[in-house]
Design goal:
Blueprint lengths: L5 H49 L2 H9 L4 H13 L5 E6 L4 E3 L16 H5 L4 E6 L4 E10 L5 E10 H40 L5 H10 L1
Antiparallel strand pairs: 1-2, 1-5, 3-4, 4-5
Helix pairs in contact: 1-5
Length: about 220
């Protein structure tokens, strides 16, 4: 009986490996696209917030005073707490000293990372990766100007690399789950097809059927 079912094993394995190859290819391709898309979304989020703050009259006034009022601090704290993909908002004067930082212990200290040079000199929005106070970050910088065009300092908005990695892992897990489900469905369909084919051939291989035909 084992020999009689050889062709069905071959059919099963052939279709199985075809489906496996297709699913792996599609899963890897889509996972790569989504992980890159996450990086793009993060860049857009931190960049848009940095630009919005740099043009906010309340923020510009705080830079001019070189002091962040309590209501502005609460506003920035609320943004950080409620906006997705935002881990740090930092306001830095043109002397490279922090005016605002989520960690109050960092206020009044020099900015860290070494990637703030263009923003201090005056630049449009740009994005870097650097280690901040404690961990690697994806960081958006933009220079803040007053109405007279004077460089007042810069704003840095960032997402930690750990946060980005977590989002990417979530996407990979999602596609792995889809892969496993699709593979299970594929194997089930192959099994049903093979079993129906086996019944239609009365459990015999085509070679056996041809031999019987020639004998008759």
């Amino acid at each position: 009986m084992g020999e009689n079912r050889t062709i069905f094993r071959k059919l099963f394995l052939s279709y199985f490996f075809i489906i496996l190859f297709v699913l792996i290819s599609v899963t890897v391709y889509m996972a790569k696209i989504q992980t890159k898309q996450i990086r793009t979304v993060i860049d857009n989020d931190i960049g848009d917030l940095a630009m919005s703050l740099a043009n906010d009259p309340m923020i510009i006034e705080s830079f001019e005073r070189k002091e962040i009022p309590d209501d502005v601090k609460k506003y920035l704290d609320t943004l950080k707490a409620n906006l997705l993909n935002i881990d740090y908002i930092v306001l830095v004067g043109n002397d490279d000293i922090r005016l605002y930082h989520p960690d109050l212990m960092q206020v009044g200290k020099k900015f860290q990372g070494g990637d703030e040079g263009p923003a201090l000199k005056g630049s449009k929005l740009y994005i870097t990766e650097a280690v901040g106070t404690s961990e690697p970050q994806r960081r958006a910088f933009i220079t803040v100007y007053n109405s007279g065009g004077e460089n007042l300092g810069f704003i840095m908005v960032s997402a930690t690399m750990n946060s980005i990695l977590f989002l990417q892992q979530q996407e990979i897990t999602k596609y792995l789950t889809i892969f496993i489900i699709a593979l299970f469905i594929g194997v089930t369909l192959i099994s049903i097809f093979s079993e129906n084919l086996n019944k239609s051939l009365l459990g015999m291989e085509p070679k056996q059927l041809s031999q019987m035909y020639l004998q008759r």
